[in-house]
Amino acid sequence: MKVLISGGSGFLGSAFSQELIERYRTQGKEVMITWLTRDSNKAHPDDINMMTYDELKKSDMSFDVIMNLAGAGIADARWSDERKEQLIASRIKPTQSILSFIERTATKPKLLVSGSAIGWYGTQGDKPLTEHSSFETDFAHRLCEEWESLALKATDYDVPVAIVRTGVVIHPEGGMVAKLLLPFKFGVGGQLGDGQQIMSWISRDDWVGAVIFIIEQYLFSQFGHKQRVSNNDNVIETRSDTPAFVYNLTAPNPVSNHTFTKTLGSWLHRPTLFTLPEFLLKLMFGEMSTLLIDGQKVLPQALSDAGYAFKHVTLKQALEDQK
């Protein structure tokens, strides 16, 4: 299998690459992974190939799967107008480069896996949300929608698309947990606001496992036939007959911020006595505070229907098993 990944060196792309290589080599299968990069001198593992976006423009290579994960972290900085433009551009430009490659290459990839986030659904409190659910319009939705809509144009070139809407990814090496480790270890961790907002999470191991599951279904189980891969609730309508689907990459048991706080504190053997009130979060983070204050209860209906078996169904499992 040959896989091209934008954002391959990131928190998710690097873990996916490592797991795919190890799993396939153990099975005696060949796998070649290439990371798209803007810096040809960027450090990378010896078993990963590197390709710049300029090289992609001229490349005649073929890939079985393209993964489109590149994008600046949505919670890494306050949402100024300039930051919003950066968040959009960091997703749109790599996607445009990939689409240009798909359009001109003679041998089309069998699948495009394109990143997104559960922010697509907007703020909807504790209402259960599946792939069939509608959305509320806010900046997070508009960002995800623009990214998804562009990626879906790959179906114009007969390339199936799987959109993966990712929740809060749990692993000590990165994401939210890594940012919280220091304050929690010092005993100053605590809940946000009233703590009742729902957090839809997934362990990094399950994120990687779910993406590999989706890819293998497409490549090895004739996943292009709608009746074999999906209930109709996660089918995305496109301008062509080429299939496109969406998957919520979340664990089946979302938790409240209060539960998350207590579970993380227990795992670290630290008290969680502090509370950051809502007004202070809004003052500190502005519009971006919606990510902390407003919950989303997003469920992995399509993955469950397709038969994916989660390794970590509780937050406690995810924290304890992933070292």
Written account of the structure:
The chain is of the alpha/beta class and 323 residues long. The protein has one domain (2-321): NAD(P)-binding Rossmann-like Domain (Rossmann fold). Helices cover 39% and strands 18% of the residues. The chain has 12 helices and 15 strands. The strands form 5 sheets. The chain has a 7-stranded parallel sheet, sandwiched between helices. Strands 6-15 form a two-stranded parallel ribbon. A two-stranded parallel ribbon has the order 8-11.
Short description:
It holds the Pfam family DUF1731. Helix content is 39%, strand content 18%. It is built from 12 helices and 15 strands.
CA distance, first residue to last residue: 28 Å
For this structure, the CATH topology is Rossmann fold
Shape: globular
Secondary-structure element order, as H and E? EHEEHEHEEHEEHEEEHHEEHEHHEHH
Number of helices: 12
Q: How much of the residues is beta strand, in percent?
A: 15-25%
Number of strands: 15
Helix-strand makeup class = alpha/beta
In the sheet with the most strands, the strands line up as 3-2-1-4-5-7-12
Name of the top-level CATH class: Alpha Beta
Query: CATH H level: which superfamily?
Result: NAD(P)-binding Rossmann-like Domain
Radius of gyration: 19 Å
Main beta-sheet annotation: 7 strands, parallel
Organism: Psychrobacter pacificensis
Domain NAD-dependent epimerase/dehydratase: 3-217
Family: Belongs to the NAD(P)-dependent epimerase/dehydratase family. SDR39U1 subfamily.
Pfam family, one: Epimerase
